[in-house]
Amino acid sequence: MSLAPFACDPAASRGRRHPEPLPPTRTDFQRDRDRIVHSTAFRRLVYKTQVFLNHEGDLFRTRLTHSIEVAQLARSIARPLGLNEDLVEAIALAHDLGHTPFGHAGQDALNACMAGHGGFEHNLQSLRVVDALEERYPEFDGLNLCFETREGILKHCSCANAERLERDEPGGVGRRFIDRTQPSLEAQLCNLADEIAYNAHDIDDGVRSGLITLEQVAEVPLFGRHCEQARRDHPHLQGRRLLYEAIRRMLSALVYDVIAASGSALRRAQPASADAVRALPPIVCFSPETRNASAQLKSFLFRDLYRHPRVTETTGQAQEVVRELFERYLAQPSEMQAGFAARSDTPRAVADYIAGMTDRYALREHERLTGRRLLATTQ
């Protein structure tokens, strides 16, 4: 399909940090997507926690399945809006490459460990992965992705880190956080698709785990109305089939809401180009009613699922694993793989090394270094 004038056109890309010839059969954004899929960091996502630790069950979401779901949702919204589907897919598949083992628990622990060394931001770490840490090509570090893909990966960034990025790459991906401008519509879309995916699959995993019940979630208006409609249309439905049907209907409603609300915002703003979008307020959005309903659902999941005693118990142990790994590697860098052990920026090397671990590798390393097993490992 043809792109809208406000979509990112690969032929007008701001390019790569290291110039390369154009691919003969793909666009540059398609090449970015393919490089991401073939990266080591992408494969590791299959053994990285979403909410439930990797050893707790084979059917819970991981960072990999989450990223695939975000990509599917983003493409479903991009097409009717005339946006670049290949770019949204590349951003969606790469947005969590820098996440630590053990999900947000691991990220919080590593950020605390790095408090005196510049901190740790998982979005910035995802950029580090694609810019520097992947080692696949003879002429450059990282994956050498296009500016537009890298910009979308860097969803959040502190002022201090944005200024550091700007010093290293004037006018680059850190600039918008200094100027307080917007990223591309494709990047905005991936941010919202990420939220939609979280809400849907955390309901699914939460009910499957037994930590929350279908009846509890049905009391939340955004989910409850779709659950009730599914019951009216299919009176025989119950259990898992009812859960899946209600989630499916909720996902469809959220997708159509974003398409309608964002389409209206685009008609009002009438941006003439992809660059014109950057000076406008955010365009890709929910309707106000759906934004409020989504916030209610997020509050419910935060209170009843993410703060559930069973989750917080494993969270505490996971953070202890990260803290003790950091302390041991900082004191004895030789315990890391040679490429990390040889680096002069030892604290950042330790953070890079730990952030790249899967859940089960982190657990095995912790047991090797301390002789203690805090969580059951997956063999």
UniProtKB/TrEMBL annotation:
InterPro entries: dGTPase, dGTPase-like, dNTPase_2, HD/PDEase_dom, HD_domain, PHydrolase_assoc_dom. NCBIfam families: dGTP_triPase (TIGR01353), PRK01286.1-1 (NF002326). Residues 63-199 form the HD domain. Coiled coil: none annotated. It comes from the Bacteria. Keywords: Hydrolase. Residues 1-29 are annotated as: Disordered. Belongs to the dGTPase family. Type 2 subfamily. This is Deoxyguanosinetriphosphate triphosphohydrolase-like protein. The keyword Hydrolase applies.
